[in-house]
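A student in our group prepared the protein record below, which I am reviewing. What it holds is a sequence and that sequence's fold in token form. My question to you is simply how this chain folds and whether the tokens agree. Do not assume that whoever made the record got everything right. I have pasted the whole thing underneath without changing anything:
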Amino acid sequence: MNRNVLIAGGGIAGMAAGFAAARAGWCATVLERAVEFSEVGAGVQLGPNVTRILSAWGLGDALAQVAAFPSGLHARSMTTGEVLATLPVKDAATIYGAPYVTIHRADLHGLLLQAAEREGVQVHSDALVQRVNQMPDAVSLEVMQHGQLQQHHAAMAVTADGVWSPLRQQLLGDGLASFTGHIAYRALVAQADLPKHLRSQDVSVWMGVQAHVVSYPVRAGKYLNVVCLAEGRLLDDDANNLQALQTWNAQKSEAQTLAELHHALRGACQPLTDLMSACSDWRLWPLCGRPAMQGAHQHAQGRVALVGDAAHPMLPYLAQGAGMAIEDAYELAAQLLGATPAHVPERLQQFAHARWQRNARVQARAVRNGQIFHAKGPMRMGRDMSLRLMGPRLMDVPWLYGYR
């Protein structure tokens, strides 16, 4: 069997895995169910743990063309607008050796796609991977491609087909992801269309009760990504509708969306309500996920590795979903470097043991951050006081950003 790897899913996780595997000397093929890649998406924050990898892959210059480089990350009170603390993320390059950037998801994906194709990765769209079959010395994927069922064979496979991964269900049999009780409302607005006092090249996190808003620049600073993350329940029909839960780019009527945002932002200060009023074309995303990883078996089964949301979906409250997928790809390639097909099961176990505890820690920290961002009563008062006194120390995450 040649050093071939098949990758189910062509999102950020799959494209990063394909590119990294090709750099490690493997012949990578990415199979993406969508007919074509689109511009749909949201913003992404990439800490120095991630930009360090992109630079090591030779993608630093390409990243600089499309990303924004904020100076500060401001923790604010939603009700008063007060800046409780600021983390000077502009210092990340000095402290951690790599910058902190914000970028549109489609721009990050496009950067990885172009790099993968330059590296010789074969990318096939309209290719739905339906099943994986493992043999002692190979794997095969059953793929519905352009309306025809086909078999693809390789030395190993990578499951990168997202939080609703059908391959995970086959490999682990641990049920579907579930609704977390959190909903994201997303909007993208051109900075030129905003009044000057609402434009920003920094990251702001406006913390309220059971909700918060995050805003930051994307597309080289020309646009502002605005997201309201709120705790709430879906209508019974939606909560029990698998298709509704899987739709991360849904829209409701303008009146219904504005009513829900108004409820989530009740008592918000004027600058924040002005910013939200300046946005339109809101997109709705019910956040679904799983408990934190429990062991290495959730990262590798025989000749199949699970990466990104297929392995460890996480709430966005640590801004590391895309980052952990890229870290997965980097570690996977490190284990594949110099490996033969016979080495694959052993190397994938080494990959799994190297990754699962870190991903579990990030998943748990994201949940905890959500509780802090959405705190009320004494916990909220304690949070605000702690931020005023020790803000940068509390906001910095050396164990996360210092990853090498």
